[in-house]
Amino acid sequence: MVKRSRIIAFFLLVVLLGGMMGTTAEKIVKNIKLGLDLQGGFEILYEVKPTKEGEKITKDVLLSTVSALNKRINVLGVSEPRIDVEGNDRIRVQLAGVKDQNKAREILSTEAKLTFRDVHDNVLMDGSDLVEGGAKQTFDDKGKPSVAIKLKDANKFKEVTQKVLSMAPNNVLVIWLDFDEGVDSYAKEVGKEHPKFISAAQVNEVFNQTDVSIVGNFTVEEAKQLADLLNAGALPVELKEIYSTSVGAQFGEQALQKTIFAGVIGIAFVFLFMLIFYRLPGIVAVVTLSVYIYLILLVFDWMNGVLTLPGIAALILGVGMAVDANIITYERIKDELKLGKSLMSAYRIGNRGSFGTILDANITTIIAGVVLFAYGTSSVKGFATMLIISILASFITAVYGTRVLLGLLVKSRVFDKKPHYFGVNPKDVLDIAKVTDDTDVPTKFARLDFVKRSKLFFIVSGAMFAIGLVLLLTAKLNLGIDFSSGTRVDLMSEKPLTTEEVKQELKQLQLEPKDVVLSGNNNEMAIVRFLGVLDQKEISQLKSHFKEKYGIEPNVSTVSPTVGKELARNAFISVLIASIGIIIYVTVRFEMYMAIAAIVALLHDAFFIIAFFSLTRLEVDLTFIAAVLTIVGYSINDTIVTFDRIRYLMKKRKVKTVDDLKDIVNKALQQTFGRSINTVLTVVFTVIALLLFGSEAIRNFSFALLAGLISGTYSSLFIAAQLWLIWKAKQLKKGKQKRDQLEAEPEL
């Protein structure tokens, strides 16, 4: 009996979901905070060092430093800065949306230690003699900008001015900011046009007062900045930059626009594919995937999360990966329909049979995501956070959302005996009366003998491994500054650039680059790398020069050798931990042989990506590691689906011989081959969209994903299952030999 009320309920539910998303989505998107790589800004990792010999960096010192930095950031007017203490002697500062990066950098790193000295550089007074918060920008009697400060003790200032006055004709009171002992001196600076000291006033009388004015060649802005710094207080430590990355506002804006456009294109292709290939369930997939995207943004807003460029990439990839759960369910339903089951029965069995597979596949990807979050830097953490949220959201929408919506359509009975609405050709449907437990699901790939060609697959992989090894030993990897240390500068112009032009501009700044690589559709971008780490002054000059030259502030990233080694070590540890975690999980859920085979396949994929990058000379950076771990999580999905089908077939049949094992593996691969191709295609759509239309900043990341997807599909189908077959066959033979020996022993 047809229940049209279910169809009405389906449409009402879809309209309700559409209305809710349509009316609230814009507000949610506006609430989400953008990371510095999308709105411009910078991130610096400081190593905290004591200012005096023998002093120790304690937790209290670090917290005091964070407090001082917060006061300085308030001076900059940056909303929602992020300052984190890392380890025992490091502080990470992230400022998104800061307009004047050079000024911000200077204000953060300046110790702001004010000292009053004589011409022989002897300290007479220091910042501790100032009233807290007593500095302000004023004007002197000639109308020039100055800084008024308030002293705690008028008598002390009287003694200081009396002493300086007695030193005539050298009766000069010199005021310094961050005097460097053993390096700076009044004698060296006094003849310069722009001396390092901020004021040098001649003392002609004794002053018995607390109000003092610092007069120098200030602009109003400089005088205000000095007053703000003095009010914020001196830093109790010295800060040394060991890692930094900065993004110009226009770079961030362009990256955001291009990547969102790429996402729209990629997701549109995924939707189109699902509609064409799965038809009615495809419509349900489009609805649930739309809800999935909305749900992710909603959760991210609730979490007060910061959206980064890799985070957007994770969201786009998540759509391709989320559809994997839909495909697993739909393929199981199609299998049951082909065996002649009723639509209702196929729906129930398909949902029940796919749940465990989807759960296993998602948990293994979550393991990779958690490891990425634990060992990644801020942008990689953003990717990992979005990846984990995507997996959880996809599980809710693809499993439960699909069940509700598809259930309404199935239970309406409108589509009974109409398998073509579910992507099944009526010619492929078997007569239920002739179907037994041993009947195999009809498949287009039944003629393919995967096991027979296993040696060929191993030879191909062996040859690829040998070629890759030779490449790595000879050409090695083109390591980015994340792992090799140094400085990277990204330049952008509105007109095409040339290598010679960029080098000439750098020569004016007395900078010698290691290499200059042009990129972009019209060579409007240039990537410049330096062997050494540029200091704050050099970075400031470089940014100002190219902003004036091209009108666009460049991106600058620096990594010290210490941090470079740490990042390389953490990358290795993260891949190792993810592999161990997956081995343990697959062993518990399946068996040890399957776990080992899965890990061999994963290492095969990781090595293929590395060899591909060695061959193409693409730069290896932190996002490369994120791509490798994403592929580790995704590839295991494919392998688990194959192993799940092997386990299912082994429960149906009694395995007595090696030929039985071969037949089971062959059947499992034949039955999951179409699903593997479909799922990889949906992710490939999104990756290619990112490659063609996305930001240059994640281009290498996208290449790594594409190489890994191809390798991952190959290894899941042709390596993992074949390895398991070899080891399981040996185990079966040993078991048979033991049984034969026991049967041959005479009874006592």
Give me the secondary-structure topology:
Layout lengths: L3 H28 L1 E2 L1 H4 L1 E10 L8 H18 L5 E5 L3 E7 L4 H9 L4 E4 L5 E4 L9 E4 L5 E6 L3 H12 L6 E6 L8 H4 L9 E4 L8 E5 L4 H13 L4 E11 L1 H30 L1 H23 L3 E2 L1 H30 L4 H33 L2 H34 L42 H21 L3 E2 L1 H4 L1 E7 L6 H10 L6 E5 L5 E6 L5 H15 L4 E5 L1 H29 L2 H25 L2 E2 L1 H31 L5 H36 L5 H46 L4
Parallel strand pairs: 1-13, 14-19
Antiparallel strand pairs: 2-4, 2-12, 3-4, 5-6, 5-9, 7-8, 8-11, 9-10, 12-18, 15-17, 15-18, 16-17
Helix pairs in contact: 1-9, 1-12, 3-7, 4-16, 8-9, 8-10, 8-20, 9-10, 9-12, 10-11, 10-12, 10-20, 11-12, 11-17, 11-19, 13-18, 17-18, 17-19, 18-19, 18-21, 19-20, 19-21, 20-21
Would you summarize the structure shown here?
One of its GO terms (biological process) is protein targeting. With 748 residues, the protein is of the alpha+beta class.
Give the tags:
SecF_bac; elongated; Multifunctional fusion protein; Multidrug efflux transporter AcrB transmembrane fold; Alpha-Beta Plaits; four-stranded antiparallel sheet; 748 residues; Gyrase A, domain 2; 5 domains
Explain what the structure shows.
The chain is α+β, with helices and mostly antiparallel strands. The protein has five domains: about 5-35 and about 250-430, Multidrug efflux transporter AcrB transmembrane domain (Multidrug efflux transporter AcrB transmembrane fold, Up-down Bundle), CATH 1.20.1640.10; about 40-110 and about 240-245, Alpha-Beta Plaits, CATH 3.30.70.3400; about 115-235, Gyrase A, domain 2 (2-Layer Sandwich), CATH 3.30.1360.200; about 450-475 and about 565-740, Multidrug efflux transporter AcrB transmembrane domain (Multidrug efflux transporter AcrB transmembrane fold, Up-down Bundle), CATH 1.20.1640.10; about 485-560, ACT domain (Alpha-Beta Plaits, 2-Layer Sandwich), CATH 3.30.70. The protein has helices spanning about 5-30, 35-40, 60-75, 100-110, 155-165, 185-190, 220-230, 250-280, 280-300, 310-340, 345-375, 380-410, 455-475, 480-485, 500-510, 535-550, 560-590, 590-615, 620-650, 660-695, 700-745; strands at about 35, 40-50, 80-85, 90-95, 115, 125, 135-140, 145-150, 170-175, 200, 210-215, 235-245, 305, 480, 485-490, 515-520, 525-530, 555-560, 620. It has an eight-stranded antiparallel sheet with strand order 3-4-2-12-18-15-17-16. Strands 6-5-9-10 form a four-stranded antiparallel sheet, covered by helices on one side. A hairpin with a 5-residue loop joins strand 16 (about 515-520) and strand 17.
